[in-house]
Structure formats: structure tokens, C-alpha cells
Amino acid sequence: MSRTKILLDERDIPSHWYNVVADMPNPPAPPLGPDGQPIGPDALTAIFPEALIEQEVSAERWIPIPEEVREIYRLWRPSPLYRAHRLEQALGTPARIYYKYEGVSPAGSHKPNTAVAQAYYNREAGIRRLTTETGAGQWGSSLALVGEMFGIEVRVYMVKVSYEQKPFRRSMMQTWGAEVLASPTDQTEAGRKILAEDPDSPGSLGIAISEAVEEAASRDDTNYSLGSVLNHVLLHQTVIGQEAKKQFEMVDDYPDVIFAPCGGGSNFGGVAFPFFADKAAGKDVRLVAVEPASCPTLTRGHYAYDFGDTIGLTPLLKMYTLGHDFVPPGIHAGGLRYHGDSALVSQLYHEGLIEAVAVHQLPTFEAGVQFARAEGIIPAPESNHAIRACIDEALKCKETGEAKTLFFNLSGHGHFDMASYDKYFSGELEDFEYPAEAIDEALHHLPKVAGEG
Ligand SMILES: Cc1ncc(COP(=O)(O)O)c(C=O)c1O
Asked: 105, 306, 313, 330: most buried by Cβ count inside 10 Å?
């Protein structure tokens, strides 16, 4: 039998991040200010350090990774690539299935790959406090983890429904020294406005972002840090796909199809973009973003300029969106409950260069359990989305007899999500199709931008 774990050495940790903008057929749609005009980098200096703003707008293909960041990456990188022999056998598929396991990071997901970089550039810029939002708690944990390493205080606005569903994610953040608040809070204007309208608001990523941005913009010593969506975040995550390419070389294989769960898009971008470089050069590889049917941003959202947060404090990004005032149902993949998507992922999807599918919650847990019983690792509910889509493709291969190479990013483990698994086992989880009327309604709330439909 061929290898199960395909491992790289620490010296193989990438020396540069890969910027997909260099290989996109069209330049990215620019972010717009409140007046509908493209914003200059200056508009972002109240909440981001200059180095990250430069990365946000860069068209350079390769951006060097600072040595201090690579040194911290060594704590868990390179991450292993696995050949899922046992899952293949369980499915009886001729397909070869591989997964890259990002759950080996201390926080348990891919998110620290960008947290380290963001904390580094903020420390270099003299920033001593960072605010952020978190849904599932994965991102908040990741920033909490690195805050201490760079001497930066971290304050996390955690979506209230997740705060209640996942008390141990909160304890984890506190262990690493972060302060965690259930959002909406009464400590920001944004939070007070939401609470006045709905005192029982379950919160949303959009609301938590409004709170974190408002606080960062109002204090000189404080910046804001985002765990997904923005170009620089996707850039930092490309260590995943770059390592995977080397690992595939080691076993003389190459994926036909790549699957990744997609919330704000950083995990998808991280694993898929380095392969997009090959696709742009003529290679045949399918890149599939997998999202929840209850939050179907790419598959059913509008491609339009919208705010990144609920209150409308961020610049306008051209992206697939369900409307910035979208409050998603309390599904158990908290990290995928975001109304928008990365502008880069959105544009590539709009231009037909990548694919997207939406899957229901129950079949994702079924896939996660099947995976855990075959491969051992208990996946995060977000990761179960990619596993579902990959298993479906492997079962198609079984029907057709095709021995395709399938690859998915196992973006995190589910050790802090066992309450969700409990609900699945006790039959309390439900599927929820986001209603068409709500999607139509969102159109009426999108900001009006000159020249847009
Ligand atoms: C384990 C896990 N996988 C995937 C995602 C989705 O990531 P992204 O927002 O980068 O698409 C998240 C987001 O929190 C996550 O926690």
C-alpha cells in the first residue's frame, strides 16, 4: 500500500505567500468608499497597519514571509497530507482521496496561519491592542494564541449563539489571555443599536465585525484584525496549498478536484489558489468551494457591492452576498455563517473559473461521522462540508469506475464541537434551506452604487 502520511520537513515551510491576483485574468474590482468611489489605501489606516494594506492591494505574485512568522509556523507546519486509504475502502471507490490536515495547529484549524502574520505586522507598527470577531470561536482562538506571542492584548467579540454553544472555545481564548465578549454587547454603539431593535439577537458575524471595527477605529493604540474575506488573509493561507503541491509531488500524483469549506473564503483560497496558478497556466484542475444550504452565499447570493459588516462601517466590497443585514439561522458550522464572501473568490466564481456547491447540515454530519469512523480524526462541522462534497464525488467515481484524484482541506478538528455532534446523534439537528424570499428581499437593502444594476 502507498504512503498514508505524506510529510514535509520544516525547511519546506514556504518562504513566500502566493498572490492569486497576479494570475487572475482581470484585475480585482476595487473596494469603494461611502461615496461610491474607489478608496485609496489611506482609508484603511485607522484599523490596519500599512504592511497589511500594501498586501491587500498588491499584484505581486510572491510576497516574502518574515522569518519570525516562519519560526512560529514551525510549531505546527508543515501540516501533514494524508491519503485516506481507509475512507476509500469504506466507500468502495476507485478514487484516490487525500486530505491536508490543518487541525494540527494549537488552535485546531487553519486560522493561525494568518493570525501569526497579522499580529507580527501590527506589532511591527507599534500596535498593542487588537479587536476582532469570531463565529465558531476558531478565529478568536487563533488570534488569542498569537496575541501573547507578540505582546498584544486581544479583545474578541464572539457571536452570542456561538458563545452559548461553545463555552470551551471561550475558556481556550481566556487561557491564551484574550478577553471575550458575547456580541451584540452594550459596549459599542453598533451593539446597542442592534440590542435596541432585538434584545434577544443571537448575533451574527456581521454584527460582531461592526463592534470590533468601531472599537478599533475609535482608539489609536488599537487595530482590527479579520480572520477571513480580505485579500491579505487569503494570501497568508496560501502556505496550505503550496505545501500540498510539494506533498503531491512526493507521491507523484495531482488532484483532479479540490474541495474546501467556504465561509469568508480564506480556507478555500489558501488551499485552492496555489493550484489556480497551474490552472491559469493550462492545467486541468477543478476547484470547488463548499458552503451550507442555509447560508448559500456563492450559489444563491447577489454579486454586488455590499458592506462587510451589518452596520455599514467597512468599505464596500464587490462580492456574492446575502445582504449585510443577514442574520443566519443557528446552524452548527458557525464559521460558515457569513453573509458575504471574499472579493477574490467571488470574482473567480463569477468568471466561471472556480465552482461552488451548497450542502445541507444533516448530510454534512453524516459525512463527518463516516470520515471519523474510517480515518479517526473528528472533523470540525465546517470541514464536514468539504468531506460531504468529496464523498459524493468519490461515490460518483464508484458508479463510473473513474479513478480520479480527490483532495479536500480538513480545515480543523471538531473537539470543541461535540455538543453539535450530540445534537446530531439525538436527532435535534435540522436542515434549513435559506428562503428565496429572503434572498430577493436582500436586494432591496444593498447599498446603491453608481453604475451597478
Ligand atoms: C474549521 C473551519 N473551517 C473552515 C472555516 C471557514 O473559513 P473561511 O472563512 O476562511 O472560509 C472556518 C471558519 O471559521 C473554520 O473554523
From this structure: 306
Task: Name the residue with cell 474607489.
Answer: 38
The answer to whether the CB of 140 is under 6 A from ligand 1 is no
Residue 262 CB less than 6 A away from ligand 1: yes
pLDDT tens, N- to C-terminus, the chain (453 residues)? 689 999 999 999 999 999 999 999 999 999 999 888 999 878 889 899 999 999 999 999 999 999 999 999 999 999 999 999 999 999 999 999 999 999 999 999 999 999 999 999 999 999 999 999 998 899 999 999 999 999 999 999 999 988 998 899 999 999 999 999 999 999 999 999 999 999 999 998 889 999 999 999 999 999 999 999 999 999 999 999 999 999 999 999 999 999 999 999 999 999 999 999 999 999 999 999 999 999 999 999 999 999 988 888 889 999 999 998 887 665 666 678 788 999 999 999 999 999 999 999 999 999 999 999 999 999 999 999 999 999 999 999 999 999 999 999 999 999 999 999 999 999 999 888 888 888 888 878 888 875 565
Ligand 1 binding pocket includes 49 (Cβ within 6 Å): no
**59, 69 contact by CB (below 8 A):** no
- Residue nearest (by alpha carbon) to ligand 1 atom 15: 335
pTM, entire model: 0.96
